[in-house]
């Protein structure tokens, strides 16, 4: 009898916890019904988990029947997104059928992942989650089967949405997809035509030859020699800078045409900027010989190089990259131009690192030429170069002072003066005073007061 009150207390406590848990889940569902942004697990600059995602964690614990009921009842596309996610997490065995219905809905759903806010249709969002889930080796059974089933349905459907092209891209080289892709290609679909070319079936050549405007891109996937004459005639219809020239040229090279003839043609007909734009074509970089020649041509003659070109030269085993770069530094024409498209690659630092083992006898010449041919915005790179090649400070200072002597622009002179400030202990101030008194290009407009302040801070009396 003494144990009964304790037993009742335990029951009451458990009941209270269950009721609170149910109430908590109901509150989460109620909040999710009213949200207008589908939040991934980590959002914002700090990558925190917001309240909506925490509510979703409770939502996905509900039985499948409850999730499906909520889906049918709600008109909120964001809530539908959370419900779709939950069905995947529950490994719903009829998810493929559910997905077919979802794909018809073109309502866009606002979503946030990290710091990025975007929107997409629900079918794409759910497909993305399946792909992410597929990276978990423990779930390959359910996930891979679901993805394969959905892919088959998408490819065989008449709906040509972004998901269709995404799946076709993924399935493009799978033998089982060939017949379907061929059927779509023969109906005139451009994307399918390119995927058909990937199979490289000779019995498709007659059809592919008929796609006149697409041939340069078709050849990227199917570099058959039979396209050579078509491309030769096509290339002669373009001027060097015209749209279409680059892709035609790449295709022309792919079919085995003379590299030397192409190099001669380009260097005689195109400007170095046009050549650079041609080299940006990813297809061009599959041809080491002509690409190397064109990269070297632009660097040796115009001191221009881009990150892709630099890496291509570095991977080339036929020539020493230092020899090529050094020739441009000393004998090239014009200002240095470092063209960056990959902002995660530090082209300048990589460039200077290649010159760090220069013989002492030419270090001064390299610094003088670099100072003379770097534009005002790149002058700070001289510091990097001098540190990389371990040149004595006097060479750098002499080169900079000579640039002040010859400059006609206050802006450039001011930038050079800023570079000199860290080296005050080694600076010949008397020589610098003479140079500024001889060249008074700095003494103009608002620049005068800026220079006066710098002179004062450096204890230079001009």
Report what the structure shows.
The longest helix has 31 residues, at 3-33. With 462 residues, this protein is mainly alpha-helical. Among the domains are: 26-171, no CATH class; 355-462. It is 63% helix and 5% strand. Helix 5 packs antiparallel against helix 6 (122-133), helix 6 (122-133) runs antiparallel to helix 7 and helix 21 (360-373) runs parallel beside helix 23. Strand 2 and strand 3 form a beta hairpin. The chain has 26 helices and five strands. It has a three-stranded mixed beta sheet with strand order 1-2-3. Strands 4-5 form a two-stranded parallel sheet. The chain is flat and about 90 Å long.
Looking at this protein, list some descriptive labels:
462 residues; mainly alpha; 3-stranded mixed β-sheet; two-stranded parallel ribbon; 5% strand
